Amino acid sequence: MEPRPAAPRPRLCDSLGADQTPSASTxxxxxxxxxxxxxxxxxxxxxxxxxxxxxxxxxxTPKQFCPVLERPxxxxxxxxxxxxxxxxxxxxxxxxxxxxxxxxxxxxxxxQRISLVEAGVTRHRSIFNGLKALAEDQPDSxxxxxxxxxxxxxxxxxxxxxxxxxxxxxAKECGAAGAIRPLVSTVISPSADGCLDxxxxxxxxxxxxxxxxxxxxxxxxAYQQCSDYDxxxxxxxxxxxxxxxxxxxxxxxxSPDLWKVTYKRDLYAAESIIKERISxxxxxxxxxxxxxxxxxxxxxxxxxxxNHVKVTSRLPCHTGRDLDQIMSEQCYSYVCVNVMTSDxxxxxxLVNMLEESNLSILYPVVVISVYFLDYKSVPFDQxxxxxxxxxxxxxxxxxxxxxLCGLLIYYPQDEQKLQESLRQGATIIATLxxxxxxxxxxxxxxx
Length: 447
Hints:
The protein is an alpha/beta fold. It has helices spanning 28-37, 73-82, 99-108, 123-134, 161-174, 216-225, 228-233, 237-245, 264-277, 294-305, 321-328, 345-357, 380-387, 389-398, 415-435; strands at 44-49, 67-68, 71-72, 87-94, 114-118, 148-151, 176-182, 188-190, 196-199, 206-215, 250-253, 281-286, 310-314, 333-338, 365-373, 402-410, 444-446. The protein is 37% helix and 21% strand.
């Protein structure tokens, strides 16, 4: 694997009380004086039990390893935790048979701060193994004991930093905390003969979700005292903190994004959410500064038609500083507008920059090469011949998770017809970006 670019400097972690990261030029003495004044942030780690078999999914592959946009689901969850600068270590509990697969995922998607332990035969046993890896009483432990530990599910990929911060802050104050959501359905209790015994008042009860957070000593001691019955059949960590540590957990209202991928249909829902999230920024690369040119008119139509999407424009790759900034903002959709030329070299330069940025490691990147066709000046056959090179090149770059296709937009002299062509072109561009359909790679579409 090629060396990874230098990681950006961690974000400020003021929300947990950490001091601002000192600059390299700050004198050591001044830095030492600044530390006592800052409110100390708790050391935080996370444990992800990922040893489940996914029986309810109804497929042989455990759900945490099921592909979403050709990337394992667990990789998205790891990415969500890695984005949080104040989570120091992430311990993943996987079965022995999936250990090599998990190591491959960590390497391929360049995950960091990940440690692996072998999962137990139940959820609680897997979590206990993860906690043991963080405990100082283990002779071969290479990790330091945190003050607070987050427990999260490997198949809840959409957890955001704000809810993680809320449960960690509450756990530091109360000893334990967990995310909750309103009940969607009423919970009933059946009798032994299969008839209704009683039901719960839905408004008074909540669904327990993840993430949950605990003072490490509280939850670790609870697991050490845990009965074999609880380890075998229990599923609720907050209950263990209450039963064995006498800690009443603080309940934190969670967001709708905390849902758990459980059934096969949930994979399609997860894919739809991810596509929507990575389609919120479109960068137009145009080889002209002429504001009156049709390429800029296409930009305006895109902004009008896609008013919920950020649309920006940049010059081609030979002035790559602007594009570098766009890529650093995690833009996964590019429209290369060939105004002055049909030369394919600009597309190659753009694709090379995308490869060097490593953007396509995590998500599929869409690149649409747009050409304007004026039947009076350029014969259709000649223009199509120039575009045929897209087909073979698209097959090549698809292997690197870059989805390339071409778009011909008719450029009539009539203003009304031109506006209609631009709208049709904008609709095609929006569909290609939203769907990210690998089956259209290398296709030449016409508006």
